[in-house]
Specification:
single chain, seven-stranded mixed β-sheet, 44% helix, 16% strand, three-stranded antiparallel β-sheet, elongated, 15 helices, Trna Endonuclease, Chain: A, domain 1, alpha+beta
């Protein structure tokens, strides 16, 4: 598991520490552990337990100890390294330190909102080099984990530092680990409890201060989430994660509160990931449509495509298909199901019935994997058949035998 400095996670402290670094550099004073650590202590950024001691008394006492036991030196070293990782300072081979353009921009802005966006950009660009030479971006991985697993235990966010790189294969490995217990994760990754605890000291707290996540009862939820499907990327409406029911009483004043939408600048930073996700879902979607077409053609159905995904006709009967890819979350499953049902109802009436003249139409909602039984029951109540892909075949739930069976389109016309 990769490591990042974990002395503190307060953005105000980080900013004040950067101000101290800039003053030392401007005064041509080395940003050494001794100089920097002393100034961090005098500015109250590094604090000590014995409040009866003055700063001078504390520093004098510290200098009687071995260097390895002087806390203020450790804080100076780790803070300096963290600023290097964030791209706010550079340290040359001659140990000359400079504030980067990004660091100067952060120091010079007086707007809290702009400062927050600059911090966010720095953390999104934070790259950690592993022992194998591969770089990962833990803050991006952390946010993706929370989007993929809403309500993930905060402790499991240590996995943001477990990833070796930013590849899809590596994220799949991390996702599989996220579905295990904390003890299993620690055992499987070969880490220790102390390392695991250190891995969640910084980034979740930073993400919360930046307004990217919300934490409730040691669980993390995304704020201003992107909803990414095979046909669109939209900003999902923010639903307070403290609300754990499907409905609640409200008032004219309390209903439809303005969502805490994130600045569009924040959304644009990681839009490449959103586009890749959409492309991946679209590729899966098209594969499923082709498999459906092959299956229906095998049973001698005549095929149509258009605004709907697939229409299969035999005689005067029609099977109307809408395909939805789903991730591993219940919320994604529900959104896709509701959207698919609406599309089926609209296309059935406006196209297949009104324009094509068919009256015997069976609607079929097709998923990329088996959905929750609640989705199957919901669709059945609307007389919509639910089918899902299993390798190169499709399955359907038989309500009479209460078991899954291979889908045969002839049985439903």
């Amino acid at each position: 598991m990769k490591n990042i400095p974990h002395q503190f996670n307060d953005l105000d402290k980080f900013f004040r520490a950067l101000v101290v670094a800039e003053k030392l550099i401007r005064n041509q004073s080395p940003l050494s552990d001794e100089n920097y650590g002393e100034q961090l202590t005098r500015e109250g950024i590094y604090t000590y337990l014995d409040k009866t001691l003055s700063v001078d008394e504390f520093l004098a006492d510290q200098k009687e100890k071995k260097k390895s036991n002087r806390g203020y030196l450790t804080v100076a070293r780790e803070t300096r390294r963290f600023f290097e990782l964030l791209g706010l300072i550079t340290v040359s081979f001659g140990q000359t330190t400079e504030i980067t353009p990004m660091g100067n921009q952060l120091l010079q802005t007086t707007s809290e909102n702009i400062r927050k966006e600059l911090w966010k950009n720095a953390f999104l660009q934070l790259g950690i080099l592993g022992t194998d030479g591969e770089v990962s971006h833990p803050y991006r991985i952390l946010l993706r984990l929370i989007r993929t697993f809403p309500g993930i235990e905060t402790a499991k966010l240590m996995l943001a530092l477990e990833a070796e790189n930013d590849s899809e294969e590596e994220f799949e490995r991390i996702s599989n680990l996220a579905q295990k217990t904390i003890d299993q994760i620690i055992a499987d990754t070969g880490t220790t409890e102390s390392m695991a605890a250190n891995a969640v000291k910084i980034l979740p707290g930073i993400a919360e201060q930046l307004g990217d996540i919300e934490r409730v009862n040691n669980r993390a939820y995304s704020v201003g989430n992107l909803l990414i499907t095979e046909d669109e990327i939209v900003t999902a409406e923010y639903l307070p994660s403290k609300v754990k029911t499907d409905y609640w009483e409200t008032s004219p004043e309390g209903i439809a509160k303005t969502p805490n939408l994130q600045d569009i600048f924040s959304k644009n930073i990681d839009i490449a990931e959103a586009i890749r996700t959409r492309q991946s879902r679209l590729a899966d979607h098209q594969k499923i449509v082709k498999l459906l077409a092959e299956l229906n053609a095998k049973h001698e159905f005549k095929l149509y495509e258009g605004r709907f995904d697939c229409l299969a006709i035999k005689g005067d009967k029609a099977l109307l298909y809408e395909v939805k890819t789903i991730f591993l979350t219940k919320s994604d499953e529900e959104k896709q199901a509701v959207k698919g049902v609406g599309q089926l109802m609209y296309y059935k009436f406006s196209i297949v019935h009104k324009k094509m003249g068919y009256t015997k139409i069976k609607e079929v909602l097709v998923f990329s994997s088996k959905p929750d039984i609640a989705i199957v029951e919901f669709c059945a109540a609307e007389d919509i058949l639910v089918v899902w892909r299993v390798d190169n075949e499709f399955c359907v739930f038989n309500t009479q035998t209460e078991s899954d069976e291979i889908f045969n389109p002839d049985r439903f016309i």
